[in-house]
Design brief:
Elements lengths: L10 H16 L7 H31 L5 H21 L5 H10 L9 H14 L6 H18 L4 H20 L2 H10 L13 H19 L18 H32 L5 H18 L10 H7 L4 H20 L7 H16 L7 H17 L2 H12 L5 H12 L12 H6 L6
Helix pairs in contact: 2-5, 2-6, 2-7, 2-9, 3-5, 3-11, 5-6, 6-7, 7-8, 7-9, 8-9, 8-16, 10-13, 10-15, 10-17, 11-13, 12-14, 13-14, 14-15, 15-16, 15-17, 16-17
């Protein structure tokens, strides 16, 4: 009897296809390799998965955003209950800190089995109006794709970690629309001190990001133009760089305030032991109340930030909104809702920068907002380089040097112990004097 042919989905078939493609790349006179095929494939898959996720999220958001008043509070409370049920029965998918920890301590593995809980919990929470964005779920999904590809190729160690990072980069790029910024963000977010630790993953991350960007743009038609409608601003004088440093200091101070608000919410949360579905439901009730008082705190700020840019608001109103947003982010995280806090940080920075620009002689609100956004995010996430690249793309602010100045100020004035504790773990295991 003739042996049964291998099924197309089998590991043996995949290995033969990869071997043939590898042979083709090795016989050409160009700087091409079999790994390029992996990086591009991961990027294409990342862009496809991120595009599908974004379309589902937009559909749900359009439906749930129609609820206002007391019905809004009811919707967010019910959403919290559903998130709790998802985590109760499908498991805790973790969050961005958990992903960073996996890269360091689990050889770079990001498991696909955690995706169902992450996808469902994040879609419910973000579409209902939680103050976290889709970057964490996107990175979880696309990073696990890199791990899945590495498993099919029987890769371990640095090779596996590199493909996971390539997937993460594709996820960041899909959301932020900046291939270079997304690639560096995936690498910078892992370290609180040395900026880029896994430097061997830079080229894979960039290639994957480019492929993901193209696919995501084709699917969603997003990412080509700047995300936020900042007025055009031209750097004409060296004083603008000094002002960038001043607002960088403002962003760093705001970061410290955010950390204290976050820790205060964490302390309150730790005082009471309750089932996960009760905790998530209470968080939804509180977030619904905040959204009633401060409508712009609802959602993660992707659309709401444009209102801050284009609308005239009082200084007191802007600063109050910034505090309310930091509280909303803290409640969302401590309430076990799932998502990322990068764009909410940008929203907060824009509020603070615009409010304080009126007190600084010669300061333009656009420069004040963008540089404060940069410093705040760099101080919390420890990503000065990628923050500069991302904000240049997101805001259309061409002279990126002031953004870089502000990002560096925020980075160096941030707390010694990083906000994302998983960034510290690698040093903590090697240096007993460092405590988490």
């Amino acid at each position: 009897m003739r042996p049964k042919p291998q099924l197309p989905g089998s590991n043996q078939y995949s290995k033969r296809v990869f071997a043939r493609l590898s042979a083709l790349t090795e016989r050409n006179p160009l700087t091409l390799s079999r790994w390029l095929l992996c990086w591009v494939a991961i990027g294409v898959g990342s862009g496809l998965l991120a595009g599908i996720y974004w379309h589902v999220l937009e559909y749900l958001t359009q439906f749930l955003s129609t609820f206002q008043g007391l019905s809004l509070v009811a919707v967010m409370t019910i959403a919290g209950f559903l998130i709790g049920l998802v985590i109760q029965f499908l498991g805790d998918p973790g969050e961005l800190s958990f992903i960073v920890d996996n890269i360091h301590s689990r050889g770079g593995r990001i498991e696909t089995r955690e995706n169902p809980a992450m996808i469902l919990a994040s879609l419910i929470g973000i579409s209902a109006g939680g103050s976290l964005g889709p970057e964490a779920p996107m990175v979880q999904i696309t990073g696990s794709l890199g791990t899945w590809v590495a498993d099919r190729l029987h890769l371990t160690g640095d090779s596996l970690r590199t493909l996971s990072l390539a997937g993460m980069a594709g996820g960041f790029t899909a959301l932020f629309g900046s291939p270079l910024g997304g690639a560096f963000f995936a690498l910078e977010i892992l370290q609180h001190q040395h900026v880029v630790e896994y430097y061997e993953a830079i080229l894979p991350a960039v290639v994957s990001s480019c492929a993901s960007y193209v696919v995501f743009v084709v699917i969603t038609h997003l990412g080509i133009s700047p995300t936020w409608n900042f007025p055009q601003y031209q750097i004409d004088h060296v004083d603008d760089y000094l002002l960038a440093i001043v607002f960088g200091l403002t962003g760093a101070i705001t970061a410290w305030i955010f950390i204290y608000i976050f820790r205060g919410c964490a302390w309150v949360s730790e005082q009471v032991s309750m089932p996960i579905y009760i905790r998530t439901t209470l968080a939804g009730l509180i977030l619904g109340g905040l959204a009633l008082l401060f409508p712009l705190t609802r959602y993660f700020g992707h659309e709401q930030l444009n209102e801050i840019v284009m609308t005239q608001m009082s200084v007191g109103g802007l600063l109050t909104l910034a505090i309310a947003k930091m509280l909303a982010v803290s409640v969302t995280v401590q309430g076990e809702w799932r998502g990322g806090f990068i764009i909410p940080l940008f929203f907060t920075g824009a509020c603070v920068g615009k409010a304080l620009s009126s007190f600084v002689p010669g300061a333009h609100p656009v420069l004040a907002m963008i540089t404060t956004m940069a410093a705040l995010n760099a101080a919390i996430t420890r990503t000065p380089i990628s923050t500069t690249l991302l904000l240049t793309k997101l805001t259309g602010f061409a002279p990126f040097t002031p953004i870089l100045f502000a990002s560096l100020v925020g980075y160096f004035l941030s707390p010694k112990i990083p906000f994302i504790k998983a960034q510290l773990k690698r040093e903590a295991t090697n240096n007993p004097t460092i405590q988490n």
